[in-house]
Amino acid sequence: MCLLVMAWRVHPRFPLVVAANRDEFHERPAAALAPWPAPRLLAGRDLRAGGTWLGLDRQRRFGVVTNFRERQPPLAAAPSRGELIPAYLGGPQEPQQFLATLQARAREYAGFNLLLADRHSLWYGSNRGTPFARALAPGVHGLSNESLDTPWPKLQRVRRGFEDWLRQELSDPSPLFALLGDRTRVSDDAQLPHTGLTTEWERVLSSPFVQDPDYGTRCSTVLMMEAGGAFYLGERRFDREGRLQGDSEYRLRAGEWPQGGTDMAAG
């Protein structure tokens, strides 16, 4: 997951709203958003390592992970960062407890950001930050492949539109998907992040929706969680040309859990 905006206890109807893009190599296989039998969560699945980037469990706990844009390769024996979300959602711990347990072995992983929520708290953890973990106050937060709220141009662009949506008290996720689909690249190289990549690659990665034949936005996800536990969770999936390939949606009332979902092929 490489771009995310989140509202925590800001919207009058939805105390948790998340809009996120997952960027990945197109050759890496993945399964669509769907219920998992064990652990019981609702998430997409990375078919190479078996984990996920974003998920929700029956208790309405939520988790998402992004990587750090780093030049050094991960250790050969490093565990997959995608295992962190199923580990949290498949266990009994609150966000603070999970992160406290994780801290002792966090350096075994390549660089990551974690956002973990339950109905009472939202926590941010990163093995590239100090302190390792902290609780977040109500507000709007943004995350890409750097520390929380690092003002990269694409994140600022989506965040402005996201904050406009929050002020309108809407319940339609379509405008959030439209924000995530923005393919506008930064035109001024002086505004690009400097992360060790070539300027050409920094330009490619500077748009909210990344389109490239080898690496790009694989899916866009929107979550809108109501205080009582009803929620909307939708995912749109794209091919290497940036064309919509599939659409999964779950709209559940408090206490409900999916047996299946709506999975529509594009076109």
CATH fold node name: Penicillin V Acylase, Chain A
Oligomer: single chain
User: What share of residues are in beta strands?
Assistant: 25-35%
Structural class: alpha+beta
Number of domains: 1
Report Rg: 17 Å
What is the CATH class name?
Answer: Alpha Beta
Lateral arrangement of strands in the main beta sheet: 10-1-2-11-12-13-14
The mean pLDDT is 93
How many beta-strand elements? Answer: 14
Please trace the helix and strand order, writing H or E for each element: EEEEEEHHEEEEHHHEEEE
Task: Give the proportion of residues in helices.
Answer: 10-25%
- CATH architect. name: 4-Layer Sandwich
Spell out the CATH superfamily: Penicillin V Acylase, Chain A
Low-confidence stretches: 261-267
Structure in words:
This protein has helices at 84-89, 95-102, 153-167, 174-180, 199-204; strands at residues 3-8, 16-25, 30-35, 41-46, 54-57, 62-67, 112-117, 122-126, 133-135, 139-143, 215-225, 231-238, 244-252, 262-265. With 267 residues, it is of the alpha+beta class. The protein has a single domain, classed as Penicillin V Acylase, Chain A. A hairpin with a 5-residue loop joins β11 and β12 (231-238). α3 runs antiparallel to α4. The two termini are 25 Å apart.
